[in-house]
Q: What sequence folds into this?
């Protein structure tokens, strides 16, 4: 006698939603629309494994089996004049994070350590509205020193840019620039009041026009509705970024969102599947907050549910899982780390 | 300046002095003695310190300058020196 594992029965409506998604995204390579994404985000728990399985198949077909590994580092921490309500680095909130600059030898050392994990991306981040001349000079100097010391792609995240700054970064060999939308256009004014969604879009569009890869991320679990989560995924898809880092809110002491609870793990997994089904060809990266929201088991489910990139080790002000935990998991899942020359 | 190498992989740092920790590294409130935040009040702080570096000096409660890198962190108190946490790649 054989004992079969219990497979959750899927209701007819969910089965139809997933069947349509299979044809449209997996077979035809066309991302789901906002109303379709809402349906994915509302799927019952019993349909979640099937949604993740479909998202995984989409990722394998349209992106391949490789996983892109990246390290991120803060060159200038804290004291930011903006008021993003989730951020412990805003100088406008009573956060315990103190302002500090990282010196270049430390930065180069971190780049080498990051490369030693197999990572191909090293992203230099500054907590600023946009870079001033001092920061741009520091960045140029840092890029040159890192390039002398180690073979790794350099990305930057320095806030809103002018056209001239976009051109300079492209000229210095920054191959990817990160600037997040964070949340849906309709929810953005609840989360940020010191700059607009349009200003964010402007930088994103300039980055693309200059030929740099655009990394444009999301932060979910900030109190947005499911409709707004679907709206965000659709707005990101319309931008066609090379990469989307997916963050889950880690409520920070002293920020306006400090009492926002931690997002439900199943909702986070539904979001992963939805983002993959919105953007079949984009690099979809696990970013901050997954340790709290998903834990070890959820991390694994996400990697088998549409995620194809990770941030290895620590984040900017908080700590991640040990690098070895993620790297061992990739080995166990038979997912090779993307090599330096290849583009996903 | 004292440099202290923590050997914990949890990220919970010990006091940079040899004195017992007097303040919780996460919230900065008085600790109940011992090497880390152990009372109920600080139970969640202890958990949080597995996923973030300490922000307050355990000896004097000053806010520390903290630098996080992909594979480690340092926290510096202007009075009590630097705590270093480094993981292997
Ligand atoms: S612009 Fe960036 S660093 Fe500044 S508050 Fe917003 S998220 Fe934080
Ligand atoms: Zn505490
Ligand atoms: Zn001190």
A:
């Amino acid at each position: 006698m054989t004992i079969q594992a219990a497979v959750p029965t899927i209701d007819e409506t969910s089965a139809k939603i997933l069947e349509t998604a299979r044809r449209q995204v997996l077979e035809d390579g066309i991302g789901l629309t906002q109303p379709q994404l809402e349906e994915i985000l509302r799927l019952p728990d019993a349909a979640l494994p099937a949604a993740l399985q479909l998202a995984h198949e989409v990722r394998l077909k349209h992106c391949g089996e490789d996983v892109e590994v990246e390290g991120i580092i803060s060159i200038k921490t804290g004291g930011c004049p903006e008021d993003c309500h989730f951020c412990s680095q805003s100088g406008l909130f009573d956060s315990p994070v103190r302002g500090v600059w990282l010196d270049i030898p430390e930065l180069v050392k971190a780049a080498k350590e990051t490369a030693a994990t197999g990572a191909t991306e090293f992203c230099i981040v500054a907590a600023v509205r946009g870079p001033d001349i001092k920061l741009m000079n520091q960045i140029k100097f840092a890029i040159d020193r890192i390039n002398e010391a180690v073979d790794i792609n350099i990305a930057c995240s320095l806030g809103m840019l002018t056209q001239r700054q976009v051109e300079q970064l492209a000229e210095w060999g920054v191959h990817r620039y990160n600037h997040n939308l964070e949340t849906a256009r309709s929810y953005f004014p609840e989360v940020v009041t010191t700059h607009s969604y349009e200003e964010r879009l402007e930088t994103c569009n300039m980055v693309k026009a200059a030929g740099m890869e655009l990394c444009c991320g999301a932060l979910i679990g900030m109190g947005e509705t499911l409709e707004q989560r679907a709206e965000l995924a659709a707005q990101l898809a319309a931008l066609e970024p090379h990469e989307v880092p997916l963050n889950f809110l880690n409520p920070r002491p002293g920020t306006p969102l400090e009492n926002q609870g931690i997002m439900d793990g199943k909702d986070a997994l539904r979001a992963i599947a939805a983002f993959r089904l919105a953007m079949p060809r984009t690099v979809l990266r696990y970013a901050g907050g997954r340790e709290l929201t998903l834990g070890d088991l959820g991390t694994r489910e996400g990697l088998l549910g549409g995620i194809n990139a990770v941030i290895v080790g620590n984040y900017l002000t908080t700590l991640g899982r040990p690098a070895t935990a993620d790297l061992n998991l990739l080995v166990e899942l038979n997912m090779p780390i993307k090599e330096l020359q290849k583009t996903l | 300046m004292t440099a202290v190498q923590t050997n914990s992989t949890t990220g919970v740092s010990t006091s940079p002095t040899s004195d017992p920790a007097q303040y919780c590294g996460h919230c900065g409130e008085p600790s109940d003695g011992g090497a880390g935040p152990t009372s109920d009040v600080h139970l969640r702080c202890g958990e949080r310190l597995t996923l973030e570096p300490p922000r307050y000096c355990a000896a004097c409660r000053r806010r520390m300058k903290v630098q996080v890198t992909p594979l480690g962190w340092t926290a510096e108190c202007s009075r009590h020196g630097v705590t270093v946490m480094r993981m292997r790649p």
Summary: DSSP finds one helix and four strands in chain B. Residues 4-86 of chain B form one domain. The longest strand of chain B covers residues 72-77. Residues B 57, 59-60, 62, 77, 79-80 surround zinc ion (ligand 3) (CB under 6 Å).
